[in-house]
């Protein structure tokens, strides 16, 4: 059997739990298949620090159960241009439709390319001929092209965890043509939703004049690539078991005791401008303003884990949220009731199911999101006899699958407040019916389905190369 090699920017010990969708999903996959997980070590070498040049630097290797973790350090300047610069200063905002937040510094693309070349040079000698390579996310789009340039002929798949915008927005990215051309070095390219896949098709047809070979296959630059939607899921059984374990149960009991006379609303996010936290706070404020019967009852618990604090747009959003929470609590709070409890930190993963289960409503209202796993976790954690209600942004990839949620436009503050009110007062029969349907979808398309479908498709697809490829 072929060995699976997963490559992503960050690598985590799959036996431990982490916050962040990609780390959680990949840990599930690798724990099942075994193999190698390659990526950045989390360490940067400062200018002037003694030691070998990047190319000669030794790799870090660590066996974690069935998974071999291999990581490399990056020079500070390369890391800044690759990670903070092109990946999170250009690709992340533009892929999330936020052209206004992008920093189009021409130096970034060079650092991004250099880091990808270094990843390729370090990974190449570790590969076996029959390895299956699965590369993840926007940090590493050109990695297959760099590996091919070094002679790799293995099957290589790519999965984009974030949305792909329509061609007009995509074309705002400096180097967009180079970036999309690099996708043709893969055998299979996967997206979260049909919408993202359709944007890819439109782009390659219009900008790369690719030939449509049917059934998701495209031909351009003397290569073919297979593309499709593979919506990511969660490990449902694992999350159910987590909810039944002692920490999950204790959390549930503590929350239901503490808030016995209240109705809890919950939001759990990385602190990121794509998650729509200020809009969510404003909708909650409108709920209290327009539907006063919810005052003294509805309590929003918002957990936002620290994320990418070295990027300016992230500190701005932090201050905005703190000020909104302060003003809502100041205007509506009572001596014995605080409308919003905001925590800027992680919740230990074993406690999450208990927190979700104790909540009547989840607010998952990103302005744009590739998928959003919190929406799925919330549904799975509910008591089927008395389930809570999911208020979900129609701009999350999850909305394509989770049609029985209350779908909202998070920019429309009043409409979102109406939906939250509806959720808080939804009759139990309707809650059960919606929950049953949502749970069935989430179970059917869980993380194992995602992984198996992607890898099976990859195993049956190999790019055809004819003539001289552009590489
Ligand atoms: P993220 O943007 O990180 O992931 P998401 O899908 O919601 O978003 O995953 C977050 C994960 O981290 C969930 O498992 C959640 O429970 C956990 N988490 C988040 N905040 C936490 C907190 N404060 N405390 C504890 N745990 C927390 C990216 C894309 C998404 C896509 C995933 C997977 O942006 O659109 O769904 O990858 O592909």
TrEMBL record:
Superkingdom of the source species: Bacteria
Alphabetized GO MF terms: alpha,alpha-trehalose-phosphate synthase (UDP-forming) activity
The EC number(s) this enzyme carries: 2.4.1.15
Record GO biological process: trehalose biosynthetic process
Catalytic activity: D-glucose 6-phosphate + UDP-alpha-D-glucose = alpha,alpha-trehalose 6-phosphate + UDP + H(+)
One Pfam family from the record: Glyco_transf_20
Keywords: Glycosyltransferase, Transferase
Group of enzyme by EC: transferase
Pathway noted in the entry: Glycan biosynthesis; trehalose biosynthesis
Subunit and interaction comment: Homotetramer.
Role: Probably involved in the osmoprotection via the biosynthesis of trehalose. Catalyzes the transfer of glucose from UDP-alpha-D-glucose (UDP-Glc) to D-glucose 6-phosphate (Glc-6-P) to form trehalose-6-phosphate. Acts with retention of the anomeric configuration of the UDP-sugar donor.
Similarity remark: Belongs to the glycosyltransferase 20 family.
UniProt-recorded name of the protein: Trehalose-6-phosphate synthase
